[in-house]
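Q: Hi! Curious about what HlyD family secretion protein looks like structurally. Here's the sequence.
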Amino acid sequence: MKKAWVLVLLLVVAAAAGWYYWQQQQLAQALPLGIVSSNGRLELERFDIASLYPGRVEQMLVAEGEDVEVDQLLVKLSSSQSESQLVAAQATEQRAHEMVSQARAGRKQGEQAMARANAQIDAQIEQQKIAKMELDNARKMRREDLVSDSEVTKRQAAYNGAVAVVQAARAAYAEAQAAVQQIDAQVAEANAGVNQAKAQEKSAASMNDDMLIRSPKAGRVEYRIAEVGSVIAAGSKMVSLLDTEDVSMTLFLPNGQMSGLQVGNDARVVLDGLDSVWPAKVSFIASQAQFTPKSVETQNEREKLMFKVRIKLPVEIAKEYKGLLKGGMTGNGYVRSNTDVVWPNNLAINLPKKGQS
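A: Let's find out. The predicted structure is below.
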């Protein structure tokens, strides 16, 4: 008895499939010239989210089938290592700033030493001038026998001492100047250390932020590839997302129906189980023909060369009906190869009511 019921069920399914296929063939035959059709499935563009760095999965913040927004947090990886690197980089930058401050303080002291040496030079030059005047005066008076030779010798020694003091002051100034130049080099080196520390801190902060895996765009979670506790390598896939705004259908059309078909031509999509007609555009046409895939229902399967054609729904419509449109939904795609042909009434755009989305 049970086998009989199974047989009846199989016959009903076969009859329904045959009726559907006949209906589609009749509809295809009833299409005006310039409009071609083929069956297909809705496809949502898939993109995988991977980790830039190795780590341990601490939290999985999304579930399969969940819609996500751009920049939404998907996965949190263990960030203890990256946080330690960030703290170390910040400490290095702080030390570099302290070195700059110390070097600048040393330069200020060097400038003060130069100023004192310069003032000393000026003062000793005045003393040297006085000593020279007294020496010249003593020599003149000696020629007139007004002073003794010892007085001239005394004035000469005083002048020589003044010259020596000036030279010593100039040497002190040169030494202070050299010290300042050396400190300038230290300041430049310390500033370079600050810049290097800032770069390290920025890199560490970026790495720490990259431990929080975010969605680059809005979409729907298809698979959770990693789970909490998993240890992953750099570049490992974490979550697979579907782009709910990139909805298309791939058709395979015979060579004889490709005349005049161009990218950008109008198209229509009719999905099984929905009394709706969706607008679309031809977004891709294969440059070479291929054998008919098994999924395409044609009379002379694998005997005709077919062209792969992709038709894409407008982004705004895909976004509006993202809850209704799902990858894998079957239906038929219709393409207008002749822009002068008017779409028949049964293929006029007919979107679902808002409540259905």
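A: A fun detail: The longest strand covers residues 237-254.
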